[in-house]
Design a protein that fits this description.
By secondary structure, this protein is an all-beta fold. The chain is 0% helix and 49% strand.
Length: 61
């Protein structure tokens, strides 16, 4: 019996002074951010954002 191989996506994790951000390597899109010190999660899937040392910038297009 032939088995189907399913690719798993890989993520890149970036650490900043304000928290941590996760980017999906395949698409280059940000998927989540975790704020320090409490670890509150922000779901970024489907949003157009830029992430840098100053924080999360939400882009309106």
């Amino acid at each position: 019996m032939m088995q189907k191989v399913v690719s798993l996506f890989q993520w890149e994790v970036y650490t900043y002074f304000w928290g941590t951000a996760v980017k999906e390597r395949r698409t280059g899109k940000w998927v989540a951010a975790f704020l320090s010190p409490g670890g509150q999660e922000i779901n970024l899937e489907g949003l157009n954002v830029e992430i840098h040392e100053n924080g999360i910038e939400f882009i309106d297009e």
